[in-house]
Amino acid sequence: MGARPAITAWRPRIEGIDEVFHAHFADHSYPMHTHDSWTLLIVDEGVVRYDLDRHEHGAPSSVVTLLPPHVPHNGGAVTPAGFRKRVLYLDTGQIDADLVGRAVDRPVLDDPPLRHRVHQLHRTLERPGDELEAQSRLALVRDRLAAHLRDELGVRRPRVSDRRVAHELRDLLDEHVVAGLTLREAAERLHCHHAHLVRMFSREFGMAPHQYLTGRRVDLSRRLLLGGMRAPDVAAAAGFYDQSHFSRHFKRVVGTSPGHYARTGPAAL
Predict the structure, then answer these.
(1) Over the stretch 123-151, which tens digit does the pLDDT of each residue have?
(2) Largest CA-CA distance found in the chain, in angstroms, rounded
(3) Alpha-carbon distances of 193 from 56, 124, 165, 183, 189, rounded to whole Å
């Protein structure tokens, strides 16, 4: 009997991602099947061999694989050690339907920066509360995938600067420090493409929108802590998902835990 597979699957609170699937298979082989979503795959250990539209392909750990919806494929390990993979199932609205044929012809994308972005997106999806970061990372991944399929990745374009939209997004984030704001809501309010918003903000301010929002929340939490509010209450009052989410970001920004920070003032006379 083969080793029991190690599988983790969940549906994140991120529009556009139907499922996150992490698996380590020692001897499992997928039969021919289809998905009603785009399959975005990275392999961390081993190599996966699969057939797509009657053509054989391989997925080593250095590449990104994008399988289009409704196209039959299978899959299995190349070596007896099996494989470890991470998959995002993206809904069909994330990539234009007219790119399905191109994805069938070339599902393997040898692009180290893209693979790193997909890896970062997976890491973000594992942390509840960082939805704006995940939305921003997804927008950039989706944009690069489309550029690959449209043969636009190497096309040189003039450097674009849109300071107006960057400052308008900052104003929106300032208005929603506690309640938060999705990237879709911001894009609709500002009549702007998701990836363009993230790029213009990062270019103008030297940080991504989610980093700015987190910094504002940490600033608010510092004031609340020094005002005497208990750390568990500060987490919700400053817009963090939970106490763990609050503590992690506070320590990363400030360099110490919220509880220790609140106790560092001079003793009362």
Answers:
(1) 999 999 999 999 999 999 999 999 999 99
(2) 80
(3) 36, 21, 11, 10, 11
Distance, CA of 76 to CA of 27 (rounded, Å): 8
Predicted TM-score of the model (pTM): 0.91
Number of helices (H), then strands (E), belonging to the chain: the values are 10, 10
* Per-residue pLDDT tens digits for 13-38: 999 999 999 999 988 889 999 999 99
Residues in the chain, overall count = 269
How many angstroms separate the CA atoms of 98 and 32, rounded? 23
Region 190-204: mean pLDDT is 95
Residue 180 zone, left/alpha/beta (φ > 0; ψ -120 to 50; rest) = left
248-259: average pLDDT: 96
- Residue with structure tokens 């320590």? 251
Q: What is the dihedral of CA 158, 159, 161, 166, to 10 degrees?
A: 130
Q: How far is the C-alpha of 29 from the C-alpha of 256, rounded, in Å?
A: 47
Alpha helices for the chain (secondary structure H): 100-105, 112-125, 131-149, 163-175, 183-190, 194-205, 209-226, 231-237, 243-254, 258-262
Average pLDDT over residues 219-246: 95
Neighbours of 155 (CB within 10 A): 8
